[in-house]
Amino acid sequence: MRFLFRLVRLLIVASATFLAGILFERYHQHTLCDQSGGQWMRAGFCAGK
After folding, report:
1. Domain that includes residue 22, residue range
2. I need a labelling partner for 47 at 20 to 30 A (CA). Which of 9, 18, 27, 28 fits?
3. Cα angle vertex 41, ends 38, 45, to 5°?
4. 39: which strand partners?
5. pLDDT at residue 44, rounded to an integer
6. Residue 47 CA to its chain's centroid (Å)
7. Is there a contact between 40 and 33 (Cβ–Cβ < 8 Å)?
């Protein structure tokens, strides 16, 4: 039973870490878009220069 709990906890922690990495990268791309003079679109990409 403890093994199963550890496995579930590992999956939850790994998923949270993966999600945090995705959010951090999106924020970084948004910042780079602003610095280059582009416009961040709602669909999640940079348009402009």
Report:
1. 2-39
2. 18
3. 80
4. 47
5. 80
6. 20
7. yes
Tell me how far CA of residue 5 lies from CA of 8, 17, 19, 31, 35, in angstroms: 5, 18, 21, 39, 45
pTM for the whole thing?
0.70
What is the identity of the amino acid at 7? L
State the pLDDT at residue 9.
96
CA dihedral 40, 45, 47, 49 (to 10 degrees): 100
Query: Residue 34 — φ and ψ, nearest 5°?
Result: -60, -40
Q: Which amino acid is at 44?
A: G
Reduced to 3 DSSP states, what percent helix, strand and coil does the chain have, rounded to the nearest 5? 70, 10, 20
Question: Quick one: pLDDT at residue 49?
Answer: 63
Q: For residue 48, tell me if it sits in a domain.
A: no
What total of structural domains would you count in the chain? 1
